[in-house]
Amino acid sequence: MSSRDRILGRVRRALADVPDGELPYEESVARAYAREHGERTTEQTVDLLAENLADYRAIVHRCAAADLPELLTRLLARRGARTVLVPPGLPPHWLAAADPVRVHDRAASTPHELDEVDSVVTGCAVAVAETGTIVLDGSPDQGRRRITLVPDHHVCVVRVPDQVVSCVPGALERLDPARPLTWISGPSATSDIELDRVEGVHGPRTLEVVLVSGE
Hints:
Elements: H1 3-14, H2 25-28, H3 42-55, E1 59-64, H4 68-79, E2 83-86, E3 101-104, H5 111-115, E4 119-122, E5 126-128, E6 133-136, E7 153-160, E8 164-165, H6 168-174, E9 182-184, E10 189-191, E11 197-199, E12 206-213
Parallel strand pairs: 1-12, 2-3, 2-4, 4-7, 5-8, 7-12
Antiparallel strand pairs: 5-6, 6-9, 10-11
């Protein structure tokens, strides 16, 4: 008997005394709780996202689509980036004016090789205003999960207002749970018992978020 058979057998025994007419779990649990806090316009929702991102110590930039290549070039130059990791589906014009050497997202890349990359630029799947959270789902403009966890500098482009939602339930409705989801609320950080904050432990030390309109 396999482990699967044992687990399913326990489930069947646990459900043996459940009446046939009883409502299934998803119907028996009330779902009338608030989905979001208050009412906001689209502009207010984007402003709240920017505010909460900054509160998490992410560096927030805003620009129009036409100015995005210039802004990304400036951010990479300010960082002194010599190499930039590029997901396969990143729009080519985003980095058309940038000088750093492009590093491709390859399955064969080792953690040591990724650690030597100066910056990574990605898109995102969705951004949650109420929590200041960026969600990546491994789509072509975001690449493999590890490319945003190992390099020390991550620039994430969020298309507004299309990719911005007010609340976590709104984000979940847009996401495929079968995809590799990464939820990012500010740069990676932790603290010890004395509350000394250390950044860059489980991901990049610096997270820059570009809110681009009209893309």
